[in-house]
Write a structure and sequence with these properties.
PBP_domain; D-Maltodextrin-Binding Protein, domain 2; signal; PBP domain-containing protein; two-stranded parallel sheet; alpha/beta; 2 domains; Phosphate_ABC_transporter; 21% strand
Length: 296
């Protein structure tokens, strides 16, 4: 009788542990760890950016997520978000998700994974060890107002580049000279990329502290809209988080690289995944890999 009770107790413990394991797989996280940070199962929820996003354009190019004709081959099952902040919120709220954001916008609401064994960092972008990187451009039309040119001068000065570095982006002007307040007045409209917007807002704040009679208005949209706005003359400076296309520069606008930025591949904080190869990222975003169990 006593042996039967012990057997029943043992079986109940096994069942409880089995139920706990199943709950863990289907509850807060669709991926579990084997101790090495790899995933052992669960459908992958792919989160991407909208068409026109400079981050999407740079991401698909860097990871070769393209078809034979060079067109974007992101899986049609991807959830599309329209800004960096919405991307982060979406990934933070979906335990099985994977997405990508500007490295400078990374915070503790999501987890950045290593790519080919290298963690994303500003130092890694600068020394070339982290290869998932792209330029931040401002786009100027054929003529700039004196005050818009002065703001651009500030951005490329040692003072402006210090702001770039403080915001976790990579300075592109190590030999830049200090900026002297101009005493100018007026308004400058800067429009475009949601990835460039955060550092542009910090640059505008620092510039206006030195030139209180200038109003810098930063309008967030996407890179393609920012470039087109500069072409159309509806803004003084466009923002683009990618290289400009020949079809854009042929219309008279000129890009100025103000910083370099990494693109961080991010997963939910509860994910067991800590690193991926470039080929795995490509497979996930093209839809060839659809389950975390296929990521070793």
């Amino acid at each position: 009788m006593k042996a039967k009770k012990l057997l029943a107790l043992a079986l109940s413990c096994v069942c409880a542990l089995g139920a706990f394991a199943l709950a863990g797989c289907s509850g807060g996280s669709n991926a579990s760890s084997d101790g090495s940070g790899s995933s052992t199962g669960g459908a992958i929820s792919v989160i991407s950016r909208e068409d026109g996003s400079g981050t999407r354009g740079a991401f698909t190019e860097l990871f070769e997520i393209e078809d034979a004709d060079g067109n974007d081959a992101t899986t049609t099952s991807a959830v599309v978000t329209n800004s960096t902040s919405v991307m982060m919120t979406t990934v933070a709220g979906d335990s099985s998700s994977i997405g990508y954001i500007s490295l400078g916008s990374l915070n503790d609401t999501v987890k950045a994974v290593e790519i080919d064994g290298v963690a994303p960092s500003a130092d890694g972008v600068k020394d070339g060890s982290y290869k998932v990187a792209r330029p931040f451009n401002v786009v100027a039309g054929q003529s700039l107002s004196d005050v818009a040119q002065d703001f651009l001068n500030f951005i490329m000065s040692s003072d402006g580049q210090a702001v770039v570095s403080e915001e976790n982006y990579v300075s592109v002007a190590d030999d830049a000279q200090p900026y002297t307040a101009s005493g100018k007045s007026g308004k400058v409209v800067v429009a475009g990329s949601s990835s460039v917007t955060p550092v542009m807002e910090k640059l505008a704040e620092a510039y206006q502290a030195l030139n209180p009679d200038v109003n810098i208005e930063v309008q967030q949209s996407d890179s393609s809209t920012g470039v087109q706005s500069a072409i159309d003359g509806t803004c003084d400076l466009g923002m683009a988080s990618r290289e400009l296309k020949d079809s854009e520069t042929s219309q008279g606008v000129k890009p100025v690289v103000i910083a370099m930025d990494g693109i961080a591949v991010v997963v939910n904080n509860d994910s067991a995944v800590n690193g991926l190869t470039s080929e795995q990222v490509k497979g996930i975003f093209t839809g060839e890999i659809t389950d975390w169990s296929n990521v070793a």
